[in-house]
């Protein structure tokens, strides 16, 4: 797993992708996939401050170059084509709330996964977990230091793993968009099945959209 932190292009003949290998290893010639776009290529070279390497492992910071010219930006993740992570926009997760103001379902927050930050909301609070007895109970919101299982819905696809299989890519933080403060932290359980389903718009919605675009 290689979250891209910076695209290094000092001139037209070099385009490298700088970041830290958060898990696994990478070798020159490995087939890789870029997420969330899904485009594939092969590793051309691995640059470091001390020179080129034939192979590198976590947690080294390196710069990768690929054989193909692929549109990659900060927040994308480069993974081995043979080991794909989750790639969706809706997840089930454990969440710890860390703010005085309670978690409000459907309120817009920013979610930070590794180097990628996307907006989204908690679409559903499934249940709250008692930290002393580990019993679950229904709840409408999470207060300070409370833990619950939630469904989060993001505005775009994010590549991540279940926290139990990869702690580096399975964790995220929740940021308040007004104060820019961290208000929660979460651990991915799984991707929701309906996350990639396409929404079918009604005839009224299509006509209303056309009307708004025409006059406004």
Query: What spatial form do the alpha-carbon principal axes imply?
Result: globular
Number of helices: 1
The helix/strand order is: EEEEEEEEEEEEEEEEH
State the end-to-end CA separation. Answer: 44 Å
pLDDT < 50 stretches: none
Question: What order do the strands of the largest sheet run in, or round the barrel if closed?
Answer: 1-2-8-5-4-9
Question: Overall mean pLDDT score?
Answer: 92
The number of E-state strands comes to: 16
Q: What is the helical fraction, as a range of percent? A: under 10%
What fraction of residues sit in β-strands? over 45%
Q: Measured on Cα atoms, how large is the radius of gyration?
A: 20 Å
Structural class: mainly beta
What does this structure look like?
With 216 residues, the protein is mainly beta. The protein has a six-stranded antiparallel β-barrel. The chain has a six-stranded antiparallel beta barrel with strand order 10-14-12-11-15-16. It has a two-stranded antiparallel ribbon with strand order 3-7.
Jot down its keywords.
216 residues, mainly beta, six-stranded antiparallel β-barrel
């Amino acid at each position: 797993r290689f979250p891209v932190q910076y695209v290094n292009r000092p001139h037209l003949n070099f385009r490298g992708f700088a970041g830290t290998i958060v898990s696994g290893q990478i070798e020159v010639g490995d087939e890789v996939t870029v997420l969330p776009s899904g485009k594939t290529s092969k590793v051309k070279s691995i640059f470091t401050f001390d020179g080129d390497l034939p192979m590198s492992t976590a947690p080294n910071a390196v710069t990768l170059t690929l054989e193909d010219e692929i549109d990659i930006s900060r927040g994308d993740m480069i993974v081995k084509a043979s080991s794909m992570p989750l790639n969706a926009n809706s997840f089930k997760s454990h969440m710890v709330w860390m703010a005085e103001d309670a978690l409000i379902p459907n309120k817009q927050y920013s979610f930070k996964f590794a180097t990628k930050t996307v907006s989204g909301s908690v679409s559903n609070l499934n249940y709250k977990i008692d930290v002393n007895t580990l019993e679950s109970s229904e709840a409408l919101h999470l207060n300070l230091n409370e833990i619950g299982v939630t469904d989060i819905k993001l505005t775009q696809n994010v590549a991540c793993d279940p926290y139990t299989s990869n702690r580096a890519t399975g964790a995220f933080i929740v940021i308040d968009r007004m104060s820019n403060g961290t208000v929660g932290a979460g651990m991915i359980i799984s991707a929701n099945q309906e996350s990639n389903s396409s929404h079918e718009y009604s005839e009224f919605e299509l006509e209303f959209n056309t009307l708004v675009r025409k006059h406004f």
